[in-house]
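Re: Re: ligand-bound prediction request (bumping)

Still looking for help on this. To restate: I need the protein modeled with phenylalanine bound, output as structure tokens. Inputs repeated here so nobody has to scroll up.
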Amino acid sequence: MGNELDELKERLIKEAEGIKSQADLLKFKEKFLSRKKGEISLLFKRMPTIPPEERAEFGKRINQLKQLGEKLLKEAEERIKGERKRKGLIESIPDPTLPGIPRKIGAIHPIARTSHEIEEIFLRMGYDIEEGPEVESEFYNFEALNIPEYHPAREEQDTFFIRKGILLRTHTSPVQIRSMKKRRPPIRIIAPGRVYRRDEPDPTHTPMFYQIEGLVVDRGINFAHLKGTLETFLKALFGEETRVRFRPSYFPFTEPSAEVDISCPICGGKDPECRVCGGTGWIEILGSGMVHPRVLEAGGIDPVEYSGFAFGLGVDRISMLRAQLPDTRYHYENRIEFLEQLK
Ligand code: PHE
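Reply:
Sorry for the wait, this slipped through. Here it is.
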């Protein structure tokens, strides 16, 4: 009997030491101290079978065991609580040796950057920046620019109409008219902004893109001024080695009109297999011309006294060219990985 009790005491101590969790605590309590089936409770039930002279001693020993069990249980409980608290505390103290959480800083979009660079060049040449609405009247977008109703550029296919007579501007040229109405010559302005055309998106088209318009009006402005200005600008943007070529063209709002090409900034005209210029050595970069007398009139300026030149360029195209993008739609996909490469 004595041995059995000694052995139980040893097991109590050993198992109490092994308590690691709340579940272990419950298991210990169940095994030894549960009122019905706990090992110690069962000993009490054996009392009547113990010889009367040993009963007092037996009773005393199992009471001691019960107290020991309860004490061990309580200690284990305290221990677990303490450990949990310590762990929680450690976790709540920030570790100053860990690297910080870097804040994401955005970058200027390649189109905005290209636009700003172009604006800078013209600001240095004494131009002002003008703006016009993206939702424009048919009058400013077409009529005032000498594009009559039957002109192919008026085809509804090319244009987003808001309602009759109101549309999303298809180019920045309406700002020419607005600027002439607002200012008196000499006028030297550029007008950057969004324009819209109902084009199916493809590698070189998106239904919204960016243009920069230029307009100069003064006494005695002639084609040489146009040529000199655009050459100066294009060399500033693409590099001094750039060659510039004027090709006769047609726009309803300029006469004469010219399309302007630059020597390929990628291969310089030396690679017959160049992917950017297609081996021709030239890249079309903008439209331009002398302001049509009817357009000056629509702007309230006397075409006998004054003359002017105008030009329009596509910012997306220039951005694409400089970054050698195979597809202009990358500009608008909001892919941070792409935009970060062009920083
Ligand atoms: N508005 C013309 C276009 O969008 C470009 C242009 C502007 C041409 C000014 C000549 C003069 O294609």
